[in-house]
Write a structure and sequence with these properties.
Belongs to the peptidase S66 family. It comes from Hymenobacter ginkgonis. Keywords: Carboxypeptidase, Hydrolase, Protease, Serine protease. GO terms for molecular function: carboxypeptidase activity; serine-type peptidase activity. By secondary structure, this protein is an alpha/beta fold. The chain has 2 domains: 139 residues, Rossmann fold, CATH 3.40.50; 142 residues, 3-Layer(bba) Sandwich (Glucose Oxidase, domain 1). Helix content is 25%, strand content 23%. It is built from 8 helices and 13 strands. The strands form 2 sheets. Strands 6-13-12-7-8-9-10 form a 7-stranded mixed sheet. A 6-stranded mixed sheet has the order 2-1-3-4-5-11, sandwiched between helices. It is globular. The two termini are 18 Å apart. The relative contact order is 0.16.
Length: 300
């Protein structure tokens, strides 16, 4: 069955900003609140905004309660996760999606929010991998915010990437799945793992050692998760680290080392991930990836 798309937003509707991971102050989301208001939306701040428990936005119980409240409230038409960091996976097993299923709504975020993107797809619902409120005002991020608005309000999108030597030409059609490689690796074997089979996988990551990237790709390969892909979209792999003895490949070369064992098309350098130009992708939406000698295009 195709993943269910929640109703697209309309002016006048209510949206909630919560933090499922790292602590976030009201000041850090002020620009986002004003932006959302300019879109004609009413903004509700969850109790996790301004809460703190060490690095988290309140303890697990508070963050879970806040997210659950927004899931259950039918007047809230989208839940925007304020920032990433770490902590979302600590909440997901005790969340109840029964009321959400009666009135689905958009959940949006990226990085640590990959857990929710994947969990919702496993349950059969679309969500948005896109820029988070704490980052709406960053320099060079205007297109990312515009793409999030387009996704929330139901406008189609096409993204392009330049030609790259490791690209593998071809065309693939399938639902989008993916997000942060580290989180996809973390949730393998859990109730939040969504199947990659027949889908277009997109990947991004930040602040990892190159041998970690290899180890995670090796795991996806050995566990059979890459075998049934329709296509692969590779986004930002930012601020990578190496050891004193170099690993010998950059992140894209590591991905190619495993991708070349399969026949699906692969496009690199897409504007997705931990950089200002982080274009919104709807996880679970059917898309078409076209990779040619002149570059790559993803239409969704």
């Amino acid at each position: 069955m195709p993943a269910i798309a929640p109703p697209f937003l309309q002016p006048g509707q209510r949206v909630a900003i919560v933090s499922t991971a790292r602590k976030t102050t009201a000041a850090e989301i002020d620009f986002a609140s004003r932006t959302l208001t300019d879109w004609g939306l009413e903004v509700v701040q969850g109790e996790s905004i301004g809460a703190a428990s060490h690095q988290f936005a309140g303890d697990d119980a508070l963050r879970r309660r806040d997210f659950q409240r927004q899931l259950d409230d039918p007047s809230i038409r989208a839940i925007l996760c304020a920032r990433g960091g770490y902590g979302t996976a600590r909440l997901v097993d005790e969340l109840d999606f029964s009321r959400f299923a009666e009135s689905p709504k958009w959940v949006a975020g990226f990085s640590d929010i990959t857990v929710l993107n994947s969990h919702l797809l496993r349950l059969g619902y679309q969500s948005i991998h896109g820029v988070m409120p704490a980052l709406y005002g960053q320099a060079g991020g205007e297109a990312a915010v515009a793409s999030l608005r387009a996704a929330l309000f139901g406008e189609p999108a096409t993204y392009e990437a330049p030609a790259y030597p490791l690209n593998r030409p071809g065309t693939a059609t399938g639902e989008l799945v993916g997000g942060n490689l580290s989180l996809l690796h973390t949730i393998t074997g859990t109730s939040s793992q969504a199947s990659f089979a027949g889908r277009i996988l997109f990947l991004e990551d930040l602040d990892e050692y190159l041998y970690h990237i290899d180890r995670m790709l090796l795991h996806l390969h050995r566990s059979g998760q890459l075998a049934g892909l329709a296509g692969l979209v590779v986004g930002h792999f930012s601020e990578m680290h190496d050891n004193a003895v170099p690993f010998g490949q950059n992140a894209y070369e590591i991905i190619n080392y495993y991708a070349q064992r399969y026949q699906f098309p692969v496009g690199y350098h897409f504007p997705v991930g931990h950089e200002a130009d982080n274009q919104a992708l709807v996880v679970g939406r059917r898309a078409t990836l076209t990779v040619s000698p002149t570059g790559s295009q993803l239409s969704c």
